[in-house]
Design goal:
Blueprint (H helix, E strand, L loop, with lengths): L1 E2 L5 E2 L2 E2 L3 H19 L9 E3 L11 H13 L4 E4 L11 H5 L3 E2 L3 H20 L3 E2 L1 E3 L9 H15 L4 E3 L24 E3 L4 E3 L1 H28 L5 H19 L16 H14 L1
Parallel strand pairs: 1-4, 4-5, 5-6, 6-7, 8-9
Antiparallel strand pairs: 2-3, 10-11
Length: about 280
């Protein structure tokens, strides 16, 4: 995953011109050859052309880059994290240019059904969904609702990735004295000049990955059981958990409130995780 941070020109050529397409094409082909020589397939390379395109963004350079990249190396992935408050009003060509769309999860939660439906429609059109969050300061955010449940929410909507800004961003100050931070801080770790210590936020992210993988394991176990001709109560319970158990976690009172001080039921994820493990064993 590489952030290009590029604009409307490349090597002296204007975006959208044949010379631009030729030069971008030669550049990405060289990179794909380089990666292939190290055993890395083109579809393992994801490119973020412009970070967080939003209402004030001119999307024409993004689209020009995406078209030139895709024409030269169609397997390379275009990954974007749009932050339009109402994505229905965004230029549709931006979304059409992407392979992976990674909306901001807090925006998804506050945007309601129209926001959610827009991205689910994009998913149905063949785009992969992921989630990211970049709120702060991080110590005010709930490790349960903000960090851990992002992967559960991703599972619920068929998303394949979960990202957080940012593991290295301590706002320029020791995490042990964050009053001196210039901004944020955002890191789920406690960082200073010589040490790295996992905070509750980092442990919540780790647990969320394990939760998601446990759900994957149960899904695969259901497939194997059905392929072997099983269709008993345990299989039915597993299917119910994969569908309704995750929904129950996300519907618990207060879990859409991301600040740590907001009261909420923080027990549901562990309760359902245990049920998933017991059902997996069965």
């Amino acid at each position: 995953m590489v952030f290009l941070a590029v604009g409307g020109t490349f090597a002296g050529a204007e975006a959208g011109t044949p010379e631009f397409d030729r030069r971008v094409g030669a550049w990405i082909k060289a990179w794909v050859r380089y990666l292939a020589g190290r055993g890395i397939a083109a579809d393992r390379l994801g490119l973020l052309i412009h970070d967080e395109p939003h209402e004030a963004t001119d999307v024409r350079p993004i689209v020009a880059w995406a078209r030139a990249l895709r024409a030269a190396e169609p397997k390379v992935l275009i990954w974007e994290d749009p932050t339009y408050r109402d994505p229905r009003k965004a230029p549709p060509e931006l979304f059409e240019a992407c392979d992976i769309l990674c909306p901001n999860r807090p925006m998804w939660l506050t945007g309601g059904k129209p926001f959610e439906q827009f991205y689910l429609d994009q998913q149905r059109r063949g785009r992969t969904l992921q989630f990211y969050s970049c709120s702060g300061p991080v110590r005010s955010l709930d490790p349960y609702s903000y960090h851990r449940l992002q992967a559960w929410h991703g599972w619920h909507v068929g998303a394949t990735g979960s990202s957080f800004w940012a593991f290295g961003d301590n706002g320029g100050a020791s995490s042990w004295n964050e009053y001196l931070a210039k901004a944020g801080p955002f890191t789920p770790l406690f960082l200073d000049d010589t040490t790295v210590t996992a905070g509750k936020q980092m442990e919540a992210i780790r647990e969320s990955v394990e939760d998601y993988e446990t759900l994957v394991m149960l899904r695969e176990a259901v497939k194997r059981a059905k392929a072997a001709g099983r269709n008993d109560k345990v299989v039915a319970q597993a299917e119910r958990l994969l569908r309704d158990g995750v929904a129950e976690v996300l519907a618990a009172p207060g879990v859409d409130q991301l600040s740590w001080q907001s009261p909420k039921d923080r027990t549901k994820a562990d309760s359902v995780r245990i049920q998933v493990l017991e059902t997996l064993a069965a």
